[in-house]
Amino acid sequence: MILAVIYLLCSFYLIRKWRVFRFENISNIQLSLAFVTKLFGAFILYYVYTEIYRDRQTADIFKFYDDSLALTQVFFDSPSDFIKIIIGIHEDHFLMDYFINMNHWDNSYESVITNESRVVIKICAIINLISLNNYVVNVIIFNMLGYIGIILTIRSLALLYPSKYITHLFWSIILFPSIFIWSAGVLKEPLILLGIGMFLFGILSVHKKREKKWFNWVLLGLGLFILLKVKFYIFCCILPTVILFTLSTVKQYKPLPLLSSIYLTVLLVILALHLYNFEYDPIELISIKQQDFTNLATFYRAGSYFEIPLVNSSFLDFLAAIPMGLLNGLFRPLPWDIQKTIHILPFIESALILAFISIIFFRFVSQKIHLKGKDNMYILGFSSFTLLLYTLIGITTPVIGALVRYKIPGTLFLILSIYILHLHNLKHEKK
Fold it and tell me: How far is CA 375 from the centre of its chain?
């Protein structure tokens, strides 16, 4: 416990001294309080997975940590083997003895392109070396990584718009239920938030032509690399936004026609890869992901399972599944999906988001407000990522709990879109 307190104090010192955490309208006290709030989310997660769902083998907040302990031990047995495993230049059969005690190093439901669980296990094993295998310290460090991602996201928006209302955005993200809960554990979500924050700050700094161009490009690249390794499909979903912002920086293209062209090109590429039986056929990957997730839900008797439109390795099935996938992503959980008390909060969350969007849309229509210039491009870029991610998750994820959790990156971009729309509306009212 003493070690945990030391790391907590170090976190507060970092918040106070690191210039990344300096905002004109957000005090150090608020920043420290927000971090404590995130840690409270970790306490809630711990309670859920120790008092409600008591099977440690299937508990998401423990599975990466428990496996990482075995990998950390490799460092003390053979530092050279540990380094080989971490950087990925090993042969599994040669080092198989090290993986015997791991339950999640190999998973049938992982992507055939990247093994995402291994990435988190490796990161956790490295952290164990400085946390002395202390789980609470690991929680603090993972929370800090996710928190830095949120801070960079806030700073990204501060590059674009006046900071007068930035405090509202800050607390909206910190307290948003799904982000508040799922970004607080030893999970992939804190790393995803870190990757998104680095990506956003990098690409928007490039777009705004800020100084230290090389640093902005490095930050952008690191953010995309994290997303690529931790969640491959998020990386794929964000690429159209990357292309939109990049081309808009180079040449003054109109955002909507450009984005439409990008998505048409993506669809044609998917069709071509499917017809020519490419090794990584996107349709086949989606079909496999569907089946693996369905089998997993059946094996563990997931109580929040719902039917999803099957793709069956067919391009036409894929096109037919898109509308229902989008509806699943946007609206679920629906009232009849609520089977447990824990499902009520995400239902309220989705309802509130849709209510905010409806109110803003009504104001825009009634007051004949039109999005122009940079606002139009940012809204299109952010919202298109949200809709694409929601659709993909809605097609492949037949379990309410997992659906809500996987939606977090898209939800974050949706909050940013609502924030920009709100500022645009305020600007119009002043005029």
Answer: 23
